[in-house]
Design goal:
This protein is mainly α. The protein has a domain of about 140 residues. The protein is rod-shaped and about 190 Å long.
């Protein structure tokens, strides 16, 4: 499906472009461009050096050919003077070949000189351009740094920055948690005061508040019943409270008290019998 693949390619390229734009730092981009221009300037200088080297090599060959032309001319003259015309002709033919090579070398050297001049001019223009770019680069970097600092200050002051927004959200979450904890503490304290919560650390059956109230009521009723019984028991005896205390202290000799009462009754009986004897003649 060409349409779908083209659309996917467009979406992927858009996403990549967005990521690259977000990751791109103008300062780093300017520095990279400056370094590439410096490398280009170095390559131009290297090219000029290569051209000059080639020109020097051709100039050395030209000097050798010039010397050879002079030598061949001298040899042709000597051969002609000696009457050897054929040898003189051969020397002149070599001289003509050397002169032709000299003309070719002169042309090549001229071309190299022109190329050297052009490359030197280009190198000077590029150097000037790089110097201007370097100055402009520093200005742009300073402006970008100032603008970036201004944006951060403004975002920090207004609280719209990403970092400040994260800090604000963290503070809001901390405040919410603190308020929830305070509300929970107040609720637990209120329920504890109302007796809703039982002591989970205490050992026992774990009765609730109603069970405790019922037990307390039952205990109070038993105490009242015992108190009423005591009052009833104390109310049946005519002995005052002091004698009850004395009797209490002699509880171990209770049988002795009853024996004393029996002795008193016997004494009264004996006195009656003696009175009867006195009346009888």
């Amino acid at each position: 499906m060409p349409g779908l693949s083209g659309r996917m390619s467009t979406v992927v390229k858009a996403k990549i472009s967005k990521l690259l734009d977000r990751a791109e730092d103008p300062s780093e981009t300017l520095e990279y461009s400056y370094q590439k221009q410096i490398e280009l300037l170095q390559n131009v200088k290297k090219g000029i050096a290569d051209v000059v080297t080639s020109k020097k090599r051709l100039q050395l060959q030209e000097e050798k050919l010039q010397q050879q032309v002079v030598k061949l001319d001298t040899q042709a003259r000597q051969a002609l003077s000696a009457g050897n015309e054929e040898l003189a002709r051969m020397a002149l033919e070599r001289k003509n070949v050397a002169q032709t090579e000299l003309q070719s070398l002169d042309s090549q050297i001229g071309q190299l000189e022109q190329q050297q001049e052009q490359m030197t001019a280009s190198e000077q223009k590029l150097r000037t351009k790089i110097e201007q770019f370097r100055s402009k680069k520093e200005v742009i970097k300073a402006q970008y740094s100032a603008a970036e600092a201004q944006v951060r200050i403004s975002e920090a002051a207004t609280g719209v920055g990403e970092e400040m927004a994260d800090v604000g959200l963290a503070m809001q979450r901390a405040l919410d948690k603190t308020e929830n904890m305070k509300a929970r503490a107040d609720a637990v304290q209120e329920l504890e005061a109302a007796g809703t919560f039982e002591d989970l650390t205490a050992l026992g059956s774990g009765d609730d508040d109603i069970d405790r109230q019922l037990k307390q009521l039952s205990t109070t009723s038993e105490v009242d019943s015992d108190l009423a019984k005591m009052k009833a028991e104390l109310g049946t005896g005519s002995a005052p409270a002091g004698q009850i205390g004395a009797g209490g202290s002699g509880a171990a000799g209770g049988s002795g008290a009853s024996g004393a009462a029996a002795g008193s009754a016997a004494a009264e009986g004996s006195e009656g019998s003696e009175g009867a004897k006195e009346v009888t003649p």
